[in-house]
């Protein structure tokens, strides 16, 4: 089950990267993966997304595994928050008022390291770019949120 989520997450990242490459910029996009595929809230249509997923599958299979790791991933936010909080607590050493400047400096340094750490966590834990025989089962517009289409991509994934 966890591998299925990691594969869907990799395909989600790759598809969004393809979409952004096609338009030449990063459009506002929120996506969430699960064991059965992923959902995307963005200005892209279901047809745009279906085409991008097809290209993403092809490119991942041809070895473009870097497409599976995204600087925009929520994993990066979680890792950054965890690193900053841990560094601040360690630097405060139980004396938050007295050591506040040290805590702030430690948190700032942790946030400098966070992007690289987030990418590492994605590669190690949250994405799997070796997608095997994954394929699109269905793509459907589900509705809209704040005027942006919500598109669901169902994937056929090996167990």
Helix/strand layout:
Layout: H1 2-23, E1 30-34, E2 37-41, H2 46-61, H3 74-92, H4 100-126, E3 135-145, E4 148-156
Antiparallel strand pairs: 1-2, 2-4, 3-4
Structure, described:
- There is one protein chain.
- It contains four helices and four strands, in the order H-E-E-H-H-H-E-E.
- It has helices at 2-23, 46-61, 74-92, 100-126, and strands spanning 30-34, 37-41, 135-145, 148-156.
- The longest helix is centred in the C-terminal third of the chain and has 27 residues, at 100-126.
- The N and C termini lie close together (7 Å).
Q: Which key terms come to mind for this protein?
A:
159 residues, 53% helix, four-stranded antiparallel sheet, 4 strands, 4 helices, 2 domains, alpha+beta, Threonyl-tRNA Synthetase, Chain A, domain 2
Give me the number of helical elements.
4
From the alpha-carbon coordinates, what is the Rg to the nearest angstrom?
A: 18 Å
Largest sheet descriptor: 4 strands, antiparallel
Helix content: 40-55%
Low-confidence stretches: none
What is the compact description of this entry?
This protein has 159 residues and is of the alpha+beta class.
